[in-house]
Amino acid sequence: MFLVRWISRWPLGLLHRLGGPLGWLVWALSPTYRRRLAANARRAGVGAAARRQSVAEAGRMVTELPWLWLRPHEEPLGERIQWQNAGLLDAAVAARRPIVLLTPHMGSFEVAARAYVERHGATQPLTVLYRPSRNAWLRQLQETARARPMLATAPANLAGVRLMLRALRRGETIGLLPDQVPPDGQGVWAPFFGTPAYTMTLAARMLQQTGATAIVLRCERLRNGRGWCVDVSPLAAPLPAGSDEAAQIEAATVINRTMEATILADPGQYLWGYNRYKPPRPQAAEPAAAEAASS
């Protein structure tokens, strides 16, 4: 913890410069990671230059985390955040609509939440879903660092789903990573870059049952520690009505297609080494989160 606190005080530009070599070190030491990154990128038709960039960006994501997590609450990101197409988000907040923010594993999805809170948290607070680390000290750090004014966290379990549902029903905002592989029973198989991938149904259920507005955020890391750019966009198509399996698969396909377009807008910042096509892990003993979303 002392080391993490010490690193958190380093300049962001220095951390990003160190992150690039760290990403390549991990790539060099892990044959499994190398094969998975190359295979996932090829599925999406991503070229060698973007693949190389993604290796370095993954390292930068790691080295910037102490800076982000331990940054004092009274020091906002401010001018380090640039916005593109923010009118779509501003209009949804102005209309007092509940919002579901969807962000893929690219750039700095941690910053996307902070950027939203600095822009609209005072009017419409945010609750984000996260998967707690198995490591006790890291889990405590995550929970402490991510809990900020107007930014609440919800664990990826039944209790967390209920927290998010209550937030939407209060007219607030929630955040999800829809390209995260859910536990068995909480998703459907839907195409992702042409290959079936187990895809969460939670995002679509939340949208359909609460009438929330879907907003996609793409948070790109800028060069030389200058900060980040957050781009705002809608879903690729409206979600279908209905809750049967066919409708769930169609809804998951729409969300996956949206994530594909978002990722290909800057493929060098996507975490191509993420094991997106793995089989789902067995469900916990508690009822499925997807069932909670229908109650």
Task: Summarize this structure as a short list of keywords or feature phrases.
seven-stranded mixed β-sheet, Glycerol-3-phosphate (1)-acyltransferase, 11 helices, 46% helix
Can you put this structure into words, describing what you see?
The structure is a single chain. The chain is α/β, with parallel strands linked by helices and 295 residues long. The chain has a single domain (80-293), classed as Glycerol-3-phosphate (1)-acyltransferase, CATH 3.40.1130. It has eleven helices and nine strands. The strands form two sheets. Strands 1-9-8-2-5-3-4 form a seven-stranded mixed sheet, with helices on both faces. A two-stranded antiparallel ribbon has the order 6-7. A hairpin with a 6-residue loop joins strand 8 (213-221) and strand 9 (228-233). Helix 1 packs across helix 4 and helix 2 packs across helix 4. It starts with a helix and ends with a helix. Mean pLDDT is 90; it is low at 285-292.
